[in-house]
Amino acid sequence: MRNILKENTAEQWDKVRTQPEYAKRVDEVRQVAEESLHEPVPLLPYTKFKLFYETGNRSVYETPYFERRKRLNAYSLMAKLTGEKKYIDALEDIIWHICDEYTWALPAHFGTEKEIADQKIFLDLFACETGFALAECYSLLEDTLSDLVKRRMRVELRTRIIDSFLQRKQPYFWETVENNWAAVCGGSVLAVFLYCAEDDEIAAALPQLESAFTYFLKSFTEDGCCLEGYNYWNYGFGFFVMAADLLRNFTQGKTDYFKKENVKTVAHYQQKAILRAPSMSVSFADGSNCFRPLYGLSYYLKQEYPDLYLPEKFAPALSDHCYRWGHFIRAFLWTSELAETNSTLPQTDVLEKAGWYIRRKENYTLAAKAGHNAEPHNHNDIGSFIFCTDKGQTLCDFGAGEYVKDYFSDKRYEFLVNRSLGHSVPYVNGKEQAAGAEYRGELLFADENQAVMEIGGAYPDSTLRSLRRCFQVEEDGVILRDEFEFSEPPTEVVERFVTHEEPCLQAGEGMVGIGDCVIEFSPQLYDVRVTKEMYSNHAGDATAAYMVDVQAKKLEQSMTWEYKIRKVNETCQSMN
């Protein structure tokens, strides 16, 4: 087994053991390890495995599956740092359990019609990740693990990853897909090959795996935007960076992706996606409104590209609900006391190719998007925007919903978080926005004072000639102006604003309070109502969503609707 992670040195591990900046993270992992030592290893019975096919539920099987990966991480670190027998025994037990698993893939990623032998060696995201974890765990703890466990690991890595890839009957779909799968699967498989395959096997596999990297990098716009969502930048680009680093080490610098201009551009995406420090992020598509940056990835990229903004606060070591090995271990190996945090984020980011506009003011941040409705992890959200203060997203984008079977089917746009009725966009003549690349918007103009978008093309309404949405940036807030042009008078137009906070409606005063913000409008021109709807968030928790719907008292063929959204000192409750 090769040692190709150059930070895997006695000196670095001594730092992790002794230096204060690691103590909190190590204590967190130690606590998890100690608690789980006294609990049985979670079982993965067939009754849980089959549930996805029967009901669409993923979490019942995935929760114990990921709990096993959590223990692999915790026991590995503690065994490495302490050498204590209790951690080594627990680590070898959990490795043995993982090697016993019927398949490393998740039920949601393949059908039961596959042959039994093919199910065992099917390479999805998590089968590939598991291979990466075991290969690197072997390399880091080779002198600690018993011979039989290491032999078992080599056999499973050979069968499930190396032979599975080399002997595949046809290419895996992720080899030519332009999204995170190409990087996570391709990068993880590449890592396994670099750690433990023969030289001729690496030479045979490398062209296809590097081709997957090419497809992955195509998933970003020319200005480096990750349309899948910020958490998928952490995920997909994170695995790309880990694999590219191992490949650079293996080739002794001959293959260096970090010298490529498009990789540098994508690396700068994180600072554009952070709305407000330390941890509020853009939640467009299947993103999250509070996805904390990763220690290892952020520090590594800062060393590669010194002009990058280094965030002030990071995710805890075991915060990822999938407990991904690579990010976890690099939170200890890729951090550096030499990297200093920057004091401020850029004030304005305009991603023209993606159609994104982000403006950070002292008291608030505005983020808005154009784009099209066939983006990766698409939501029908052309013209959607976020208004964020230090307390969080006031007018929000809900981000990813619960990943159940129907979420990735033709029923996707029946889910509130994915359809345009779950976003702060208009509803026109009884129609919401439609899915498809032909339904699109355009960022017409953007500077530090305003952004103008044409979003009429997102609606399947032949009478809507134009819908121009303008955001005018003021010191205390934003003036939102929508200019409608119809070929004939409309029958219904509704402006919708969405939030997680219960609004305080003061219609007679032309005001809707939401948290520490207000939407101001002319009560002589508009009627306003508030409704509530429940949805399942990404964690599967029932979550309340509030819709503020505004309707003009008089509809015209050509009309301009205007509102002021501003930050206030008092809260919504104190306005009553």
Give the topology:
Blueprint: H1 10-18, H2 20-37, H3 46-49, H4 51-55, H5 59-82, H6 85-100, H7 116-121, H8 125-140, H9 147-166, H10 180-196, H11 199-218, H12 230-250, H13 261-267, H14 269-273, E1 274-276, E2 280-281, H15 295-304, H16 325-333, E3 348-351, E4 356-360, E5 365-369, E6 372-373, E7 385-389, E8 392-395, E9 426-428, E10 436-440, E11 442-446, E12 450-454, E13 464-473, E14 477-486, E15 493-499, E16 504-506, E17 511-514, E18 517-520, E19 526-536, E20 542-552, E21 558-567, H17 572-575
Antiparallel strand pairs: 1-2, 3-4, 4-5, 5-7, 6-10, 7-8, 9-15, 11-12, 12-13, 13-14, 14-21, 15-20, 16-17, 17-18, 18-21, 19-20
Note the main attributes of this structure:
single chain; about 575 residues; alpha+beta; 8-stranded antiparallel beta sheet; 5-stranded antiparallel beta sheet; 17 helices; 21 strands; about 35% helix; elongated
Give a quick rundown of the structure.
With 576 residues, the chain is of the alpha+beta class. It has helices spanning 10-18, 20-37, 46-49, 51-55, 59-82, 85-100, 116-121, 125-140, 147-166, 180-196, 199-218, 230-250, 261-267, 269-273, 295-304, 325-333, 572-575; strands spanning 274-276, 280-281, 348-351, 356-360, 365-369, 372-373, 385-389, 392-395, 426-428, 436-440, 442-446, 450-454, 464-473, 477-486, 493-499, 504-506, 511-514, 517-520, 526-536, 542-552, 558-567. The protein has an 8-stranded antiparallel β-sheet with strand order 11-12-13-14-21-18-17-16. Strands 3-4-5-7-8 form a 5-stranded antiparallel β-sheet, with no helix packed on it.
